[in-house]
Specification:
The protein has 220 residues and is mainly α. The protein has 12 helices and no strands. The chain has 2 domains: 91 residues, Helix-hairpin-Helix base-excision DNA repair enzymes (C-terminal) (Endonuclease Iii, domain 2), CATH 1.10.1670.10; 112 residues, Orthogonal Bundle (Endonuclease III, domain 1). Helix 8 packs across helix 9. The model has no long low-confidence stretch (mean pLDDT 92).
Amino acid sequence: MLLCGVTKITEEIAAIHRAIYDNIEARLREFRSLWEKGSDRELFVELVFCLLTPQSGARRCWRAVESLVQKDFLFNGCFDDICGELNIVRFKNNKTRYIMEAREVLWDGGSGSIREALSRFHNAGDRRDWLFRNVKGMGYKEASHYLRNIGLGEDIAILDRHIVKNMHLIGLIDSIPKAMPRRVYLDSENALHIFADRVAIPVSHLDFVLWYKETGDLFK
């Protein structure tokens, strides 16, 4: 019965992938274009979006980012300015602090621009490690999300709760971890890579497919 269930889920994943393949490719082209043609400002905006996403809906987070940009609070606002625009996301006080610290490191002359920082590395894994170490509030999931969204992370996985839930259903992991420290994240990511190879769906597509399976949405 368990094998039958896994087969059914795998078939559903393949069907979804066929149905939204063109949409996924269009999204990935947009992301690659952001790194190839985007400004440092645009790269920082995307980083802030990813900092906001833990335990908060992606579309709500993006609305908050758009409001911050429109009011010129993202780059020039004080704590209260930024926090006031984050009422629609969870943990707004912590996330405001994360934004302001990221601004000091990557915008106000701390470590130079995001592009300069990430260009020092030659693979997504090293870039992710650097983000994890240097941007407070950015765990492995958020760093993976960010790199994917700027066209630098198509070979790493965004292990959010929707993805992890499906990995458990498929049998790729024994249980849903309460926390995802580096070793657990990398082991789970490797399991997803093996599954992706087995079903002939790139990991960069599989993230979208599993997200769509759970939410019916294809956003960022």
